[in-house]
User: Fold Fucosyltransferase from Oryza meyeriana var. granulata.
Amino acid sequence: MDVKRTRSPRAPGVDADEDKKRAAEWRGAVRPQMVLVGFLITLPVLVFIFGGRWGSFPSSSSNSPSSSVPSVGGRHVVPGGVTTTQKTEAPKNVSAPTTSLSQDKLLGGLLSAAFEESTCQSRYKSSLYRKKSPFPLSPYLVQKLRKYEGYHKKCGPGTKRYRKAIKQLKAGRNVDNAECKYVVWFPCNGLGNRMLTIASTFLYALLSDRVLLMHVAPEQEGLFCEPFPGSSWVLPGDFPYNNPQNLHIGAPESYVNMLKNNVVRNDDPSSVPASSLPPYVYLHVEQFRLKLSDNVFCDEDQMILKKFNWMILKSDSYFAPALFMTPMYEKELEKMFPQKESVFHHIGRYLFHPTNKVWGIVSRYYEAYLARVDEKIGFQIRIFPEKPIKFENMYDQLMRCIREQRLLPELGTAEPTNTTTDAGKVKAVLIASLYSGYYEKIRGMYYENPTKTGEIVAVYQPSHEEQQQYTSNEHNQKALAEIYLLSYCDKIAMSAWSTFGYVAYSFAGVKPWILLRPDWDKERSEVACVRSTSVEPCLHSPPILGCRAKKEVDVATVKPYVRHCEDVGFGLKLFDS
Assistant:
């Protein structure tokens, strides 16, 4: 029943003039001296009550950068109406962060503080979902990044220097002693490949003093925030060579084809004036027959390439390891990355920040299902069309890996009677796959059976798209969100050859277990999984590094910081012994 508040009726004989008279008497009774005395008496009480709340760090029980994300009660709705419930108490062994918010959000100086936080919330918040980086940041890399940001702001789109450079390009001129030089990146293949190649291209831009510009295709629009303060890395639409169809291995502007056709020479780079070169050069750094098709990682080639003011680059590979094998860059890279396997970990976390729309997907999902668990385990399953694996075989391999590496608790036959130290702890399993079968089976296993230790296992899968859609913007938004969610896991097991998985575990700074491919003539892999020696991605198709001798050189036998990849035997990976 509604309760209504009513006013007492006016007493007889009291008119409006008397009301005004009483109000005036009351105002005169409250003197300034009385207000001051009252304030001084209550001030200590106010300080005691409210002082500890202002500027405090978010509660450790939430383990999140923001408490404003609404909870959805721990229920996870999945296709088909199936729901799972999640225990919502605070984890037993979660301690408060030991560093301040300002230190965490800048990642020790990796990120610039020159951005308005609200324009890209993930830039300063996403790292708060992860453990502290295992790799100390080189002060020289920080210095290099700040210097680059100034260079990009001076020469980027919309500046007088950029307009001048474009005018020269359109006129077909490559001038001597140009103040600004550029490398223009064009996309190839899926999102994981693109992120790896963008990071590689940016590292190349740092080494060769170029401004990185990106051709943003429709399927990539709205995924990433701008990484450089006061400027843009998006290639303007009026760029004269904006047609990706013209960028292929046979393009006459390709550096290798220029060498073949005697358009340029690399036998005496110092004698070649920049003004004698074409207006731009194209680098086709794409794998071809399991080798990078352009051999551009030799000093003499780099000395010629440095003379081009405009460079267009298209790649599907993580070619950063090849830069470490280029003699003229070795010393600089040593100063930037004293720990070799931290390259993508640092460069990727510097460059890639999901837009607010994508970050909303990430943060809501994390807060709803992952924020209050004791441990997060991620499984990423990718089936490639060139080597299809039956679902039953892949699932069996995943379960063998889980058992052998003890990634999840063993099942029991009855509820445990003895209380263990792990009893009641919650482990969240995050599955990233195009297919729902792995989620259904693992969830059913832990739904129907208790664990021997009394631990609780909750299983989640954000989406299952059934097939990869390179050219779908919505698909890429979901893929980016799941890369970030996977990167918040404490342990990761992933499919061999997957660039999606490479990006996630490198962000996390976690060495994954890799689910090996079966041999080409077999349906099952004898070895379920192996632990990676490094958090670096794999370069699937290494270049020929004999340079002018053009002979095969196994770099893994001559460089102490290079090994062959666990999942791609001929591939190369940076690592620290």
Observations:
- The radius of gyration is 30 Å.
- The longest helix spans residues 32-50.
